[in-house]
Write a structure and sequence with these properties.
Chain lengths: ~90, ~725
């Protein structure tokens, strides 16, 4: 799980271009969307694409989406629950 | 002076069919034309429902957008023998459907990309109908068609034209088909606007045009009584959740028309079928109409959402409403949504209809509303009087290969070219990193320019409106979107790049940054894009204290610029940048004044003579100008030089000429940098000697104005004068 969180931190920082953030100061339990990072609906969709592309998991309901992207830890948990094997 | 704007003719092609009669029949049948897409083959997945025009004759060289526009234009012009004075079209796709294929096939013959630009559609239509006057190409996403018609109304009111062909067009393409799907905005069961179970839109295509005239035709179909524009200044892709921008646009359209709520018999909704749009629109309507709202429906359940065409298509449907007393149904609606609290027309309805409000909203929070009525049913509104024909420049900024404004002006004063790409630090100057993390080259340049121009002015208040000219739009986002789309076998396109790829994205960002909630217009007129933005500002900026930003910017892109811009060949080193101005009608405290006395989309024998006349005639010219800044795009070198020679001969001017592209490099909005040069001359009181290969020219006498001429395919003039 910790590996997955570390991996997701790098990916999210990269695809959302969160320049001020490093994996070290990225709090996986902090509010991800609508919080201090300024992550909004477009970023969520960008993460949806990443999750589908890299983990083969399709997220297409907004309500589910809100829960999944509430924090990075929640996202990692959802991915872990929905993948059978180890991640890439 | 009282003026009426009549709708003399209309033309329409949509997924419902071709022509007004067929459209009316289809709407009376209340059937949906939304079907699985088969326009282009898909690399993966099942086709989504889309609004595709069927049976369009295939032609290899002319993109689909151009062909759709041509059909609508011919129908609208059918009853008219003379060409209109101007053509104003909204458009977001240009020739991209063809460009997508060419890029995939790695075709590098740039001749094949010549119809890529949005302006190529407008210019093609103008040529086909014999119009040599002003063309404006408006790109404000899904409100483009309505905004184009609103600009036409202003142009007719101002007396600058007596007839205008105005409308909108877009063809389906991979960019919009996959782009909207990447935003999860497409309803897989077809489009059901206002329905409780609605899940989104159906991307569509089409074209519609109105022939507008101030001279009463024998049988006017309808009257365009008013228009209202606004910007949410809230989010690049989502509407303001309370529909505040939509509310303001509707309200100002009613005020412009001089109508009250009770006068409106029917609202033609924007009603895309996305949960957010329909909710925001419903809230705005309920806020505006105190009691029960008038009858209303969205035709997008039948046609899909044809983006830039939709506002014009729905204007034509509004013409049907008032001319035939026919109101279309909200096709596909079944379940009442209590959150909206609106019940649309479930069946086509015959009902005496005097006045229609037609709504269009788009990305970038761009809103345009039109009021269309039976002819001469209501009192005409007096057209606004213009006391000042000039706009006053209160601040400016530029970016170039030489750097920011200070660096650019200082290099130019020494006669040193500032060609080249603006460096990434200078285009991100003063921009907070969290605000621009998603922004690539063009929006960064635009924001940086807007901040610079506003800072240079003494204005404390924020500008209310934004006018932005860009020849090619956000090339980085467009290229990155298409590349990732192709590389991922069409499975993983980037929603961020799609939102960023729209031409009006940068101006929308400016509005959000400075809180500009007035009109927000992006024009795309090739090498004359900045000139078109200035013309739009001149049409819309009223007397009073309000200020606006007028910008022109283009980015150099290593792959796309050499393919698309005819003036850039593989050997050309890329240049980019732009200029921005903080303007108002208020002269006090201004740096100088600007006006746009002339713009002709295509050049003929008589054009130079017309230009000389528009500038005040030979004598006035001689006494006025200290220097000419002349823009001749490399692709039009020969004809541009010939035009310049003819202009100098006919006007008898001996004024020094600065060919500014030698200093700025080749890019579509180089004229915006030239405009900043002109301002810098007037502010410093001299034209630097090295630029005119001689002594500095002092700008202290009568002969102190500066003329910025755009030559080549079109002819444009901007005049900068001291206060």
């Amino acid at each position: 799980m910790n590996n997955l969180i570390a991996e997701l931190k790098l990916k999210v920082i990269d695809i959302l271009n969160l320049q001020d953030l490093t994996p070290e100061n990225f709090d996986e339990n902090a509010q991800l969307v609508g919080g201090a990072l300024g992550i909004d609906s477009i970023d969520v969709l960008e993460m949806v694409v990443m999750v589908e592309k890299d983990y083969g998991i399709v997220i297409n309901s907004q309500e589910v989406g809100e829960k999944i992207f509430s924090s990075l830890a929640a996202l990692a948990e959802y991915i872990a629950e929905n993948t059978s094997g180890p991640s890439s | 002076m009282e003026k009426r704007i009549y709708i003399a003719g209309v033309g329409i092609i949509s997924p419902l069919g071709e022509g007004l009669t067929v459209t009316e029949e289809a709407l009376r049948d209340n059937r949906s034309a939304i079907k699985p897409l088969d326009l282009f083959p898909l690399l993966s997945g099942e086709p989504l429902p889309a609004g595709q025009v069927r049976g369009l004759e295939e032609q290899s060289f002319l993109p689909r957008t151009h062909r759709l526009a041509h059909i609508a234009a011919m129908e609208a012009m059918a009853s008219c023998n003379a060409p209109p004075d101007a053509v104003i079209l909204g458009n977001t796709t240009g020739g991209i459907l063809l460009t997508e294929q060419l890029l995939r096939d790695k075709v590098d013959n740039k001749e094949l990309y010549r119809y890529h630009g949005l302006n190529s559609v407008t210019e093609y239509i103008a040529r086909e109908i014999g119009c040599r006057g002003t063309t404006l190409t408006v790109s404000t996403a899904c409100s483009s068609g309505a905004v184009a018609i609103a600009l036409a109304l202003e142009m007719l009111n101002s007396g600058k034209a007596k007839t205008v062909l105005a409308g909108g067009v877009d063809s389906l393409c991979r960019l919009t088909y996959f782009g909207f799907n990447s935003l999860q905005l497409v309803d897989r069961k077809g489009c059901r606007p206002l329905d409780l179970d609605r899940h989104g839109m159906a991307v569509a295509e089409g074209a519609a045009m109105l022939l507008l005239t101030t001279e009463k035709p024998d049988n006017p179909l309808a009257e365009l009584l008013g228009a209202g524009l606004s910007c949410d200044a809230y989010h690049p892709a989502a509407p303001h959740p309370e529909g505040r921008g939509a509310f303001r646009a509707m309200q100002s359209a009613l005020v412009d028309a001089g109508l009250g709520f009770a006068d409106i018999d029917y609202i033609s909704l924007h009603g895309t079928g996305t949960p957010e749009n329909d909710l925001a629109e419903a809230k705005a309507i309920k806020a505006l109409f105190a009691g029960p709202p008038p009858m209303l429906s969205s035709i997008k359940g039948a046609t899909g959402h044809s983006l830039a065409a939709s506002g014009a298509i729905e204007a034509v449907v509004s013409v049907l409403a008032v001319s035939k007393n026919f109101l279309p149904a909200n096709t596909g609606w079944q379940k009442f949504d209590p959150a909206l609290g609106l019940t649309p027309l479930t069946q086509p309805t015959t009902q005496r209809t005097n006045a229609v409000l037609s709504n269009s909203f788009g990305f970038g929070g761009n809103n345009g509303c039109l009021v269309i009525t039976k002819p001469e049913k209501f009192s005409a509104q007096p057209a606004p009087e213009r006391v000042n024909t000039e706009l006053a420049i209160h601040g400016c900024a530029c970016l170039s290969g030489g750097g920011n404004t200070t660096a650019t002006i200082s290099l130019l004063a020494q006669g040193i070219p500032v060609a080249g790409m603006a460096n990434f630090d200078s285009i991100s100057e003063n921009l907070p990193p969290h605000m621009v993390r998603r922004l690539k080259r063009l929006p960064r340049m635009t924001l940086s320019l807007a901040l610079g121009a506003h800072k240079d002015s003494a204005f404390e208040e924020k500008p209310s409106a934004v006018f932005m000219g860009t020849g090619w739009g956000a090339l980085s986002e467009t290229y990155d979107f298409l590349t990732r789309l192709a590389e991922s076998k069409e499975q993983f396109p980037s929603p961020t790049d799609f939102v960023g790829s729209v031409h009006n994205g940068p101006a929308g960002q400016v509005a959000i940054m400075v809180g500009a909630t007035g009109a927000n217009i992006t024009t795309s007129g090739g090498d004359y894009s900045f000139e078109q933005a200035l013309l739009a500002a001149d049409l819309l900026m009223e007397e009073g204290k309000e200020s606006c930003l007028v910008l022109g910017a283009d980015e150099g892109h290593p792959v796309l610029s050499p393919l698309l811009d005819p003036s850039i060949v593989p050997e050309t080193s890329l240049s980019d940048g732009g200029g921005a101005f903080c303007l108002s009608r208020k002269k006090e405290g201004a740096q100088c004044l600007v006006r746009s006395p002339f713009y002709q989309s295509s050049v003929g024998e008589e054009s130079i003579g017309c230009l000389v006349d528009a500038l005040g005639g030979i004598q006035a010219l001689k006494d006025k100008y200290a220097v000419l800044l002349v823009g001749i795009p490399a692709a039009a070198q020969e004809e541009g030089e010939a035009q310049l020679a003819r202009f100098m001969a006919q006007s008898g001017l001996k004024t020094p000429v600065i060919r500014y592209r030698k200093f700025t490099g080749e890019f579509a909005s180089a004229s915006a940098v030239a405009a900043v040069m002109a301002v810098s001359f007037l502010v410093s009181g001299k034209v630097p000697g090295p630029l005119v290969a001689g002594n500095a020219i002092l700008l202290d006498g009568n002969q102190s104005a500066i003329l910025v001429l755009g030559l080549g395919r079109s002819l444009s003039a901007m005049e900068f004068t001291r206060l």
